[in-house]
Amino acid sequence: MYRTISTILFLTIVSGTIIVISSENWFLIWVGLELSTLALIPILCSNFSPRNIEATIKYFLVQALSAALLLNSALIQAWLAGSWSILEPLNNVSSICLSIALAFKLGLAPCHLWFPDVLQGLPFFQGLIIATWQKIAPLLILFFFGQLIISYLLIVASLISILIGGWGGLNQTQVRKILAFSSIGNMGWLIITSVYSTNAAILMLVIYLIINSTIFLLFEFLNISTLGHLNTTSQLSPISIALVILVMLSLGGLPPLTGFILKFISLFFLINNGFILLSSIMIIGSLLSLFFYLRVSFNTGLILFPQHIISITSWRNNSITSPLTTKIWLLSTLSILSTISIPLTLPLYISI
């Protein structure tokens, strides 16, 4: 794809998200979501392979269904309330339609079945856009207008997402599917926290975007698609082994890494509101997901596979020096933020 065309498409995606965030009209929110989705479709099928086209068509059909549900919800609301304003209280039918539409867009259970298959058929960079940027606008709709939506539906869907995100990734060997189920589980954590504290959910969203972007860019840089490819990280440099292990453990929420603050904030607000049983179910789902995070980390650390000793330390023989690219600088910065930025997030948490 030409650089000019790709730049225009990326700017359209960003502008669509900005329209959603800054709108006070349900129709403009729908327009912003559709603008972002339609601009993303050419980027997703840029490789033009059969698996890539199949994933793009599935993504388009799911997004078209969710957009139709959201527009129907807005039409019912405008018909009954006589206004397109988002400040008007939603009726029950509009609330249910809007909840289902946003669940499809976010890959929230039980509307999650499309997400692992689509992410598996796309390269890491396109998958990164779907797993991070495309979820910002629907999440902010839930964060800021969650009081207008039936809360118990969101709580039940979030709990199911946490359990499915942990259970579904246990038997996966494809890295993209593992990241997809990880995303499903983290969406549950974000949304269930937003019911009780919007500011805390926004802070959790920022942390999740940093960690998830790091792991996608890292796997793209190392060209890892399955768990069996993780041993090749030792052929690049020992630093890549440490980065994969630390970022995956941070995504799992182990202290003292940055991802720990994500789980801690959510449990803090839930326990303070007296939801002990709810917190226990979430911890069980988090322990399930921690199993495949540790599995990725262990496979990365096992560098002494049956192979020639020269190939194991081939990074020593690489004497060619070249300037670091922008992607490497971005990956380095995100890696630092996703592993040791707890001192930066704690003041934000205290202010909340």
UniProtKB/TrEMBL annotation:
Bilayer topology annotation: Multi-pass membrane protein
TM ranges: 26-48, 60-81, 93-115, 136-166, 201-219, 239-262, 274-294, 328-350
EC nos: 7.1.1.2
Domain of life: Eukaryota
Coiled coil: none
GO cellular component, one term: mitochondrial inner membrane
Keyword Iron carried by entry: no
Keywords: Electron transport, Membrane, Mitochondrion, Mitochondrion inner membrane, NAD, Respiratory chain, Translocase, Transmembrane, Transmembrane helix, Transport, Ubiquinone
Domain NADH:quinone oxidoreductase/Mrp antiporter transmembrane: 23-289
Annotated catalysed reactions: a ubiquinone + NADH + 5 H(+)(in) = a ubiquinol + NAD(+) + 4 H(+)(out)
NADH dehydrogenase subunit 2 C-terminal domain span: 290-346
A molecular function GO annotation: NADH dehydrogenase (ubiquinone) activity
Entry-linked InterPro entries: Complex_I_Subunit_2, NADH_DH_su2_C, NADH_UbQ_OxRdtase_chain2, ND/Mrp_TM
General function of this protein: Core subunit of the mitochondrial membrane respiratory chain NADH dehydrogenase (Complex I) which catalyzes electron transfer from NADH through the respiratory chain, using ubiquinone as an electron acceptor. Essential for the catalytic activity and assembly of complex I.
Similarity field: Belongs to the complex I subunit 2 family.
Official protein name in the record: NADH-ubiquinone oxidoreductase chain 2
Organism: Tripneustes gratilla (Hawaian sea urchin)
Gene that this sequence comes from: ND2
